[in-house]
Specification:
Length: 396
């Protein structure tokens, strides 16, 4: 009969057997019982419809994990089977974890985007406005990439007066997120008007440093207005959403940040033309008002008033003269009539033979006015005869 073995010996044998037989496993399952330990290790289980197995990913491997594990998440795990001999428990030791059905980077991107959105990193209300005429722009990018040369060319054409300051940083690879975050913090102390954070195009892996939470935190905490300019127009990274303005490319970031000197020259020409037109209108209006005031002053001047009175006097004098002439003319006519009447009745005309003037009570009368027994005088220029009407005979 064989001698019994100890529990420890059995667990060691099982450990050796399992770890040798299952030195590499590739397992798909749903995460449950998830714990992120203070040590940096991750403890969880994966399960399917009928079974569960414990898993662990140690800190050394978690740094390669691009997304955050969540309960209920379906994953594909690469690793091996290991046995914890003191307890006789076996578990999967994960070296790599990928999300099932979607890429790890895509999932990590969506997870961080959702997290930062909930924290208010994307709120439009906190976005800072870019100055219209910046004097100094600080660039956080690689010192050797094409992006920096493109930005310098655009800046020299658009606004030669601008001062560009480069804070060089790694923009891809391990450690790039630390370099970029540190460069942003340093750039924020330079009192620049605008900060451009970015790089040229590349794969999602090349651009991944700009999808890191550390970089997003640095952008969010900066006081300087930041333009995110990563990759090409079709590339969207987390820094685009956190920054104050998103540019399609690094060159576009400079176009957004700087005014176009040629456009400003044309704008100034237009302003000059508008000013000249407006000035002419003002001058013409003032000239019209001045002419009106001058005319009004002349009309109401003492000279004009004297002239008006003088003209009135002349008119009155003229009217008086005309009126006087009319009176004189009427009087002349009357005198002529009187003269004619006088001449007709002049006493000298009484001396004609057979003609006498008949008066009655010193008044010249006609024969028709006489009555019987009237005492009348028959007069010529030389003789007067008093007589009495004795008989009146009417000729038929």
């Amino acid at each position: 009969m064989n001698s019994p073995i100890t529990v420890s010996t059995l667990n060691v044998q099982i450990k050796s057997l399992l770890e040798t037989t299952f030195s590499f496993v590739y397992v798909e399952g749903e995460i449950s019982n998830l714990t992120y330990h203070n040590s940096g290790h991750i403890y969880f289980s994966i399960k399917d419809a009928s079974s569960t197995i414990s898993c662990v990913m140690f800190k050394g491997n978690t740094r390669y994990l691009k997304f955050r594990l969540e309960v209920g998440q379906k994953i594909i795990l690469s690793g091996s089977v290991t046995v914890y001999a003191p307890r006789g428990n076996y578990q999967l030791l994960a070296t790599k974890i990928e999300p099932s059905g979607v890429g790890a980077l895509a999932l990590a991107y969506e997870q961080l985007k959702k997290k930062l959105e909930l924290k208010g990193y994307f709120d439009q209300a906190r976005k800072k406005e870019l100055p219209k005429y910046p004097k100094k722009i600080v660039l956080v990018t690689s010192s050797t990439g094409a992006a920096i040369e493109d930005m310098k060319k655009v800046a020299s054409k658009r606004w030669p007066l601008i001062e560009l300051i480069l804070i060089p940083a790694l923009v891809q690879g391990e450690g790039a997120k630390f370099d970029i975050a540190e460069a942003i913090q340093k750039a924020d102390t330079l009192n620049a008007d605008v900060m451009v954070v970015g790089r040229g195009g590349g794969s999602i892996e090349d651009l991944w440093a700009f999808n890191e939470e550390m970089v997003a935190d640095a952008i969010f905490s900066a006081n300087t207005p930041i333009i995110s300019a990563v990759g090409h127009e079709s590339d969207f990274v987390i820094s685009d959403f956190v920054s104050d303005v998103r540019a399609a490319t690094p060159s576009n970031a400079i176009e957004i940040a700087l005014p176009d000197s040629n456009e400003l020259k044309m704008y100034l020409d237009n302003l000059s033309d508008e000013y000249e037109r407006a000035f002419k209108i003002v001058i013409n209006n003032k000239e019209t008002v001045l002419n009106h005031l001058s005319s009004s002053f002349k009309q109401n001047s003492f000279e004009n008033k004297f002239n008006f009175v003088q003209n009135n006097i002349k008119d009155l004098q003229k009217n008086f003269n005309n009126f006087f002439k009319q009176i004189l003319s009427r009087k002349e006519q009357e005198i002529k009539l009187l003269s004619s009447s006088y001449e007709a009745n002049h006493p000298d005309k009484k001396s004609k033979k057979g003609f006498v003037q008949v008066t009655k009570e010193n008044t010249i009368v006609s024969l028709e006015e006489l009555h019987l027994d009237d005492i009348i005088n028959l007069e010529t220029s030389k003789l007067s005869v008093k007589t009495k009407v004795m008989h009146i005979n009417y000729n038929k």
